[in-house]
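Let us practice reading a record.
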Amino acid sequence: MQKTKPNMTKNLIFKTAIDYVIITLGLVLYAIGFTVFLLPYHIVTGGVAGISAILFYATGFPLQYTFFIINFFLGIVALRILGWRFLSKTIYAFCMLTFLLGLFQQILPVDESGHIVKILGEGQNFMSLILGCTMTGSALGIVFLAGGSTGGTDIIAASVNKYIDISLGTVLTFTDLVVIGSCLLIPEFGDILQRTHMVVFGLCTMFVENVMLDFLMNRRRQSVQFLIVSSKWQEIADAVGTQLDHGVTILDGHGWYTGQERKVLWILAKRSESNAIFRLIKIIDNNAFVSQSAVIGVFGEGFDQIKVKIKKPHSADNQR
């Protein structure tokens, strides 16, 4: 037992370090997508980044400062719901992203008027939107998969998703609509036609970001089901259980043609584990009969949690 605890601690530290590396890479991707493709074209996005951009376009106040201030107060509110473990990564994420947003604005080339150069040239607003939001949406997914958040409305989405089985993209949609729609109320953005144009582009950013976010999150959560029929079922079950540390269920089967009793291995696994399972099966029994199918959802230990509300039963006194 004394040897196991240090190993578990090392594994936890290593996994946490990997999470922070992945979060950092996601933040770099987000900062590049936002400052290179969205900011120069005055494209509005949702969330706290969108609020920061709107204030920046209207007043010139540095967006990274607005981003930090709003996230700081949201972090305090969400501390009790999400806990220190999640919020510690979130605090790191929005502090790092604040730094990266400021850094990229300083190092990117500027034109004669002092604005960041439009890398795709004039009139390429929509193409810049597609490229930028593909990057920022992917970055959000990467950060979420590592157990973190870029802050802002992501904190709200993570808080809701903790208790309700609703996609992160859906939660973000409602909050983003309010942020993007506020452009209609700001006269500094021009006449009503120009403001409507900004809102339409903002809705496009919201769609692309949320599609990319849901794509990454759902792909990561996809699970598969294996049904394995083999004369070496015991060896396969032992290998999956010991080498992959994965559960196996043994079912009783009966062959119609042979009339023989057979054991069938039933395995539910993450999609990413498929190759490892196939490799073990092939090594042990190359003639095994294997059926693999995709499943809509798997809930329970090692998979997703069941997130439904259950009505509390009335007490005996109330029933009377």
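A brief commentary: The mean pLDDT is 82.
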